[in-house]
Specification:
538 residues, alpha/beta, Rossmann fold, Nucleotidyltransferase, domain 5, 8-stranded mixed sheet, 19 strands, elongated
């Protein structure tokens, strides 16, 4: 039986398991942390500067109380690791700073080493400076602690303890024996090196606590994505770990991100640290800009996006998805763009059919290839339903661990039997000489190398944007191409030229790159006899 007092804090499967293991809830221990915040700490920024740090409801009930109230049967804290994921401007940094100071002076740990870790010096300074400001504003703490801003360190001489900021761009973090470690904005860690170096640094402590406190990112293959997924698993009970605490405030993928109710759902401090008016203004801007939409979703709603900066509006893309019968295209002129992936990865070929009049639509017909031996691993890495696409006949797999381009060559020839293939454009920077020569010398196609830089890619990329916005693209709802359209990010040079950015995109974009190449050829009078939208591509 669980007591009524305990029942209020049993919120999931892992809590139930912990009770069976002998864990209990100590409200006095949790309240000790709350009293430390309100009696010892003051805010240092904005309209709250100089006021006592009174925990907001979500900070107390959602984080502090469960994190410090749950105890193991030996009386130590139940939780050893924690992940708090919440949008920006909800008070994450201030909470992290306050917790760092509590763990330094209030947790009764002799020789405590408290660290704040971040991706770079600037980010590491944010939480540290907030903590330093709190110390200097507190009559109690300023007498006991020595703030060294030049070295990003706060010393507690009486207990031989200290608090220090660390960043991933500074080496030598071995040998750290932390009592409390706070990773700020974990999504920004480009590699897992710092995490792996520090993760076991608290093993010799009696009740160490490692906290990651972050907003969502865009690359789920990072340590941030890994820890977010772990936190989700702990919350929904699919992962059994009674020593891991998780708190996530976010909009679900299916939520309407323009709905004010969803804003409140994702932002527990909305109306307190964030104004509803500013949220509304940001949302209006995001609805008119794919770039700002991604920023709004990540920073305001804590949603992981497919890429750092979104290029194409998926809503506008979907408006171009009306199915069509490919027999309608028989005999029509087209250009095939081919983006060859690594031999063990995805390859795409997209035939682009220009309109036959000035107001018509461009049709996209895609083919996709991957080696069978790598399919399962690639599906897991990409978080994409490759196996389903294979079963549905949308993805062609070739025997072995490397893509057999003979299958690609076969399909290009099949296209030529059905359509009037005027040219094949293929990445000239990739190792494509063999397949290009076969298509040219043995099959008789006009094959041209196509550069991947701004000079070649910018004009057709801008044309793709324009055609999508004017709904002059017909892709038939191709699910693989849609997935890639959702992944793709763009980059721009100083002259305003743009191109798809593979290194910044949130997944494979080969089909979009192939479509851009095909689009370039489909408006080139050297290949198409009835050009309707002229563009310089070479």
């Amino acid at each position: 039986m669980v007591s009524a007092a305990l029942d209020a804090w049993v919120r999931g499967k892992n809590d139930e398991i912990s009770v069976d293991e002998g864990c209990y809830f100590d409200l006095k221990a949790a309240d000790r942390v709350r009293r430390f915040f309100v009696k010892t700490l003051c805010h240092s920024k904005g309209e709250w500067a100089g006021k006592p740090f009174e925990l907001l409801d979500w900070q107390w009930e959602g984080v502090i109380a469960p994190l410090f109230g749950w105890k193991r049967k030996n009386g130590t804290r139940r939780f050893r690791k924690a992940g708090v994921w919440i949008p920006k401007k909800n008070g994450k940094s201030a909470l992290g700073s306050g917790l760092s100071l509590y763990m330094l002076v209030g947790d009764e740990e002799p020789g405590a080493e408290v660290y704040n870790a971040a991706a770079d010096k600037e980010q590491a300074s944010i939480v540290y400076n907030e903590a330093a400001n709190m110390v200097e504003a507190s009559p109690v703490l300023s007498k006991r602690l020595d703030v060294r801003r030049s070295t990003k360190r706060i010393n507690y001489p009486a207990q031989r303890s200290w608090y220090k900021a660390l960043s991933a761009d500074v080496p030598t973090k071995e040998g750290i024996n932390w009592h409390f470690l706070c990773f700020d904005e974990l999504h920004a860690q480009k590699t897992r090196d710092m995490w792996d170096t520090l993760a076991y640094g608290g093993a010799a402590r009696r009740q160490p606590l490692m906290l990651s406190i972050s907003t969502a990112g865009y690359d789920r293959q990072t340590i941030g994505g890994e820890q977010y997924d772990y936190a989700k698993g702990v919350l929904n009970g699919s992962i059994q770990d009674t020593s891991f605490f998780a708190y996530i405030a976010e909009a679900e993928e299916s939520d309407d991100w323009t709905d004010p109710e969803i804003w409140h759902k994702a932002n527990p401090s909305l109306g307190v640290t964030i104004s509803v008016d500013s949220m509304r203004d940001d949302c209006k801007e995001a609805q008119n800009s794919p770039v700002k939409e991604n920023a709004f979703r990540r920073y305001r709603l804590n949603q992981w996006t497919q890429q750092d900066v979104r290029w194409l509006s998926l809503d506008k893309w979907d408006l171009c998805g009306e199915p069509f019968d490919r027999k309608e295209l028989e005999g029509r002129q087209c250009v095939v763009g081919i983006d060859l992936g690594a031999t063990s990865d995805l390859t795409a070929a997209v035939a682009v059919f220009p309109p036959e009049d000035e107001t018509g639509e461009f049709y996209f017909v895609g083919r996709y290839y991957m080696p069978d031996a790598t399919l399962i691993d690639r599906e897991r890495e990409a978080r994409a339903p490759y196996l389903k696409w294979k079963r549905d006949g949308l993805l062609t797999t070739t025997p072995g661990a490397a893509t057999d381009y003979a299958f690609l060559r076969r399909d290009v020839n099949r296209m030529a039997a059905e359509y009037d293939v005027r040219a094949v454009l293929i990445d000239r920077n990739f190792n494509a000489a063999h397949i290009a020569n076969e298509l040219r010398e043995q099959d008789g196609f006009e094959v041209q190398g196509f550069g991947q830089g701004y000079v070649s890619m910018s004009a057709p990329s801008k044309l793709l944007e324009t055609l999508i916005l004017s709904q002059r693209i017909r892709h038939g709802g191709d699910p693989i191409l849609r997935w890639m359209a959702n992944n793709v990010a763009a980059e721009m040079d100083a002259a305003g030229n743009i191109k798809p950015a593979k290194n910044r995109s949130g997944g494979k974009i080969d089909g979009i790159v192939a479509a851009i190449m095909g689009l370039a050829g489909s408006v080139d009078p050297r290949f198409i006899t009835h050009v309707t939208a002229k563009v310089e591509v070479w």
